[in-house]
Amino acid sequence: MPMPRALLSVSDKTGIVDVGRGLAARGFELVSTGGTARALADAGLAVTSVSEVTGFPEMMDGRVKTLHPALFAGILARRDRPDDLAALARHDLALVDVVVVNLYPFVKAAANPSTPFDALVEEIDIGGPSLVRAAAKNFRGVLVVVDPVDYPRLLASLDGTPSLGLRFGLACKAIAHTAAYDTAITETLATVRLDGDRFERRPPAVGELPDRVGLSLEKIRDLRYGENPHQRAAWYRPSGSDVVSGFSRTVAASGLGAATILQGKELSYTNLLDLDAAARIVLEFAEPAAAVIKHTNPCGAATGDSPADAYVRARDADSLAAFGGIVALNRPVDVRAAEAIVSTFIEAVIAPAVDEAARPVLARKTNMRVVTADFSSLGLSRVEQRSILGAALIQERDQVVEAARAWAPGALPEGLRVVTKRQPTVEEWEALRFAWRLCAHVKSNTVIFTDARRTLAIGAGQMSRVDAVGVAVMKAQGAARSLAGSVAASDAFFPFRDGLDAVAKAGATAVVQPGGSVRDAEVIAAADEQGLAMVFTGRRHFRH
Predict the structure, then answer these.
(1) DSSP β-bridge partners for residue 311
(2) Mean pLDDT, the chain, as a whole number?
(3) What is the span of the domain harbouring residue 131?
(4) What does the alpha-carbon distance between residue 289 and residue 303 come to, in Å, rounded to a whole number?
């Protein structure tokens, strides 16, 4: 019986010697190309060069080496078809049973903006994707591996009879590998412009989105259902490469794409939406911060001297609404924070980490979902996608950059200005900055009332700003809380003075809003009439 044959040709040589040794130990002839053959030979393994199999040398700086019937016939021959096997015999060709291939490092080259166009083109692999697709197509007879992570599975399977499920799973992964590779090439070449007879890479300018965007996702898990029990749903994370920034880069899972579930019932679709909304809020703050979310809107949010202090402030901002809420912290959950959280009925918690000593405390609430996620790399994402009926929308991620540093008279960020006769007090400046960061995360139209460290009342998602103020006042009254001396923030301008009058009547002494209405003068006059200080930011923060 002829010796089984394995073809190895990889750009990423991680583990290639180990898998080569494992294959050789199981009686495989190793066939290889270029650098892979050298790596195997240097490790003392017997290697047959591709040129020996094809009868042709590698040509054109390696552009042509594996594209030959001697290889592809051995890969594509159907083991259950006597005519295929007879064709191999007539031409004295051997079967190829294992294909271990990964592709030229196009994504790595494209990630470097200084890579010349001609050098980038040389990183477009031709033979590699063809080998991978051929092996995947004939998965019943050929094992194809594109990821070093799968080398141990490959070798273990060869100690017995590789299952059809394993073969098909590796084939699907291989096809996804080539699909992501082709997407990266397509999107990178979309950034290339012809200038005379020269090709230049020109990524989208700041504020410009690319002409073509690919989205490659891999499933994390199925969810019980979507927003309602009759809707199917699943949770995905990015995979492959991303070129929205103009240059391809490998996507590393982060945030909720790399979350760890420590305990609790299965996460639902709405849980994940709320965890996302809650995390966005606490990421606005450098100091310890907490948010309690219901239906993607905050019930309360606060900063504190510790995670526990921040959580209690956020919860007590609207303790009735906080019942059954979703909590986010921007600090690890310690024992004090855990004790405070389990004293309330909470559906889920997300934080960067949970202290070991805090885990038994949280475990008292066996159904409460506890999720940890690395927030640190989320700022790298410049754009967000959303599906609509029959299409998709992409936008730059909204960031409250005008509140990134402290506000104070004479040191305002560009775009901010006091438009009233009265300047805010030092305390009002601090509270206005806090309020402005929060209102960007409340569904429009919104008007919120806060002090310097927590929300006091939130009017979310109303059709008018007067209605938004009315909802906030109702919430404050329900909590027996006075809004006297508070500050207010509106995510967009007041189109008429009635909204500003309602804010003043509620008890606020200072207001922050974008400005930009044709009736700004009328609204400013109303503020002056009532002794309010008002700051315009020049920047709107709608959230739909």
Answers:
(1) none
(2) 88
(3) 5-189
(4) 4
Tokens representing 422 are: 């009265």
In a domain, 462, yes or no: yes
**Residue keyed to tokens 């393994």:** 45
Write down how long the chain is.
544
Instruction: Name the pTM for this structure.
Output: 0.76
Q: Exposed, middle or buried by CB within 10 Å (0-12, 13-18, 19+), for 452?
A: middle
Q: Where in the sequence numbering do the catalytic residues fall?
A: 137, 295
Residues 6+ positions from 197 with CB-CB distance below 8 Å: none
Residue spans of beta strands (DSSP E) within 398-539? 417-418, 447-450, 455-459, 487-490, 510-513, 533-536
Task: Pull the structure tokens for residue 164.
Answer: 């059809």
End residue of a domain, out of 376, 398, 426:
376
Nearest to 329 by CA among 362, 295, 360: 362
pLDDT of residue 532: 97
Taking residues 56-78, what's their average pLDDT?
A: 81
- pLDDT, tens digit, for every residue of 352-404? 999 999 999 999 999 999 999 987 755 445 678 888 888 988 888 888 999 88
If you write DSSP's letter for every residue of 239-286 in order, what string do you get?
-SEE-TTSS-EEPPP-GGGS-EEEESSPPPHHHHHHHHHHHHHHTT-S
Domain of 118, CATH number, reads 3.40.50.1380
Which two three-digit tokens encode residue 412?
């305002």
Same domain membership, residue 427 and residue 364:
no
Rounded CA-CA distance 223/234 in Å is: 5
